């Protein structure tokens, strides 16, 4: 709702969109005619009256029909070789991108198509969502289409346009349009669902994905009343965008989201229709044939052994698969589902103290060991491992050690710092590797020069 008000506000007070009755805060409704006071009001959409659309030009009618379904997005509307922004979108383009207003009765800005990556990245980094609208037919194709119609209206006599991609902080991908605008850090899209248990504990299902490399992580785990494991997950894999089921999170979990993820986009999804059940999730994955070679190996541990069709989640993974459903729905809305899910890259997420807890449950007298040190969110914060008290990296261990020459190395170093080695053999092996490198400075310098020129191979591979 705050984002909606921000979109409507700003610019010349005489702009027509500021005076439209259906956009006034006390009259605005979503596409299903629900007022903003309704508990199921969807701020991502807006109702645009039919009589208003009848008064528009064909192209502007197209724009409003898309805006009605994507009211939370800034439309980059393709017109020839330019992307144009209208009304409230144009105001944001002028104020945040320094685009110049064009002459006309309503707010209108634009830029050449070659600058898409630059301007889209700038808005996404500021927390906006960008919808790229492309022309999907030429004027000649439009003419042929109209000729075949019995009684074409003026609204038929315009080239067809479609939203080809929706980009937000959590759904950035490494494409030709994006160019080099995507930074090295991983930006996770995370879905979270919760089931409250006795004793103030919770059972969480999570699915998070770095859309730039199409690697999906699924997990289900119990947590204490302080949400310790959930906080640690957020510290190790900081999400840029969080999806959760409307009305299904406990107050303490909601508080963790608000305090631990202050800069992340938080979006609630409608139960079942958007945040799918595990059964609907697996059925949809099967029906849409995302996986040409059958169920990916990484997804099989989450399926029930009693269902040979793979349409039922195991009892221990129902919430995790449910979270995958939310991510799948959202990626479908962004038109990224086929591109990312077809990669079939699924891994199991386990809390950092998982090995410790397993051995402790065995009540063995043996020494409890684990391959990695357990660094929870509080430890990472107090030791300034990844972030300082101001939320930056100055003075942190990460800033001190990060001399990586490639984006892939930077992301790997982040994970190494979150989970330091504890095994003597592994530590000594890494020390020997460092010693070898220190002993050959000329070779290291030459290799560094070559590696610095490398593109982000990990992200490029996801496009093949």
TrEMBL record:
KW DNA-binding (keyword) present: yes
Domain DNA mismatch repair protein MutS-like N-terminal, chain residue ranges per copy: 57-172
InterPro entries (UniProt xref): DNA_mismatch_repair_MutS-lik_N, DNA_mismatch_repair_MutS_core, DNA_mismatch_repair_MutS_N, DNA_mismatch_repair_MutS_sf, DNA_mmatch_repair_MutS_con_dom, MutS, MutS_con_dom_sf
UniProt keyword terms in alphabetical order: ATP-binding, DNA damage, DNA-binding, Nucleotide-binding
A GO biological process held by the record: mismatch repair
Record family assignment: Belongs to the DNA mismatch repair MutS family.
UniProt-recorded name of the protein: DNA mismatch repair protein MutS core domain-containing protein
Source organism (scientific name): Cuerna arida
């Amino acid at each position: 709702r705050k984002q909606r008000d921000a979109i409507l506000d700003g610019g010349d007070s005489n702009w027509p969109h500021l005076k439209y009755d259906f956009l006034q805060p006390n009259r605005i409704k979503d596409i299903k005619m629900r007022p903003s006071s309704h508990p199921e009001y969807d701020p991502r959409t807006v109702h645009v009256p039919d009589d208003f659309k009848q008064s528009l030009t064909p192209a502007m009618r197209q724009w409003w029909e898309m805006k009605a379904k994507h009211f939370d997005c800034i439309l980059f509307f393709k017109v020839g070789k330019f992307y144009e922004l209208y009304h409230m979108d144009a105001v944001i383009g002028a104020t945040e991108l320094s685009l110049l207003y064009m002459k006309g009765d309503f707010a209108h800005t634009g830029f050449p198509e070659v600058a898409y990556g630059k301007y889209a990245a700038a808005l996404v980094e500021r927390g906006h969502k960008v919808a790229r609208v492309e022309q999907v037919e030429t004027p000649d194709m439009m003419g042929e289409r109209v000729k075949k119609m019995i009684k074409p209206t003026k609204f038929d006599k315009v080239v067809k346009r479609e939203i080809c991609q929706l980009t937000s902080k959590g759904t950035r991908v490494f494409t030709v349009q994006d160019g080099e605008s995507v930074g090295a850090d991983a930006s996770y899209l995370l879905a979270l669902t919760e089931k409250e248990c006795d004793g103030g504990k919770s059972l969480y299902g999570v699915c998070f994905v770095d859309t730039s490399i199409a690697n999906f992580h699924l997990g289900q785990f119990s947590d204490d009343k302080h949400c310790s494991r959930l906080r640690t997950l957020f510290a190790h894999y900081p999400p840029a965008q969080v999806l959760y089921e409307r009305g299904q999170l406990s107050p303490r979990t909601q508080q963790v989201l608000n305090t631990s993820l202050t800069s992340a986009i938080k979006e609630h999804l409608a139960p079942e229709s958007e945040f799918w059940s595990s059964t609907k999730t697996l059925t949809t994955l099967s029906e849409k044939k995302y996986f040409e070679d059958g169920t990916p190996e990484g997804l099989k541990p989450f399926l029930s052994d009693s269902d040979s069709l793979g349409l039922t989640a195991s009892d221990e993974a129902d919430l995790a698969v449910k979270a995958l459903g939310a991510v799948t729905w959202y990626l479908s809305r962004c038109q990224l589902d086929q591109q990312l899910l077809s990669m079939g890259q699924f891994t199991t997420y386990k809390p950092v103290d998982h090995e410790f807890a397993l051995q402790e449950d065995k009540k063995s007298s043996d020494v409890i060991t684990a391959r990695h040190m357990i660094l929870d969110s509080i430890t990472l914060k107090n030791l300034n491992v990844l972030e300082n008290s101001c939320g930056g990296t100055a003075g942190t261990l990460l800033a001190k050690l990060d001399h990586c020459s490639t984006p892939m190395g930077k992301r790997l170093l982040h994970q190494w710092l979150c989970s330091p080695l504890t095994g003597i053999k592994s530590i000594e092996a890494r020390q020997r590797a460092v010693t070898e490198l220190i002993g050959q400075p000329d070779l290291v310098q030459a290799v560094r020069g070559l590696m610095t020129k490398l593109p982000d191979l990990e992200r490029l591979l996801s496009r093949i």
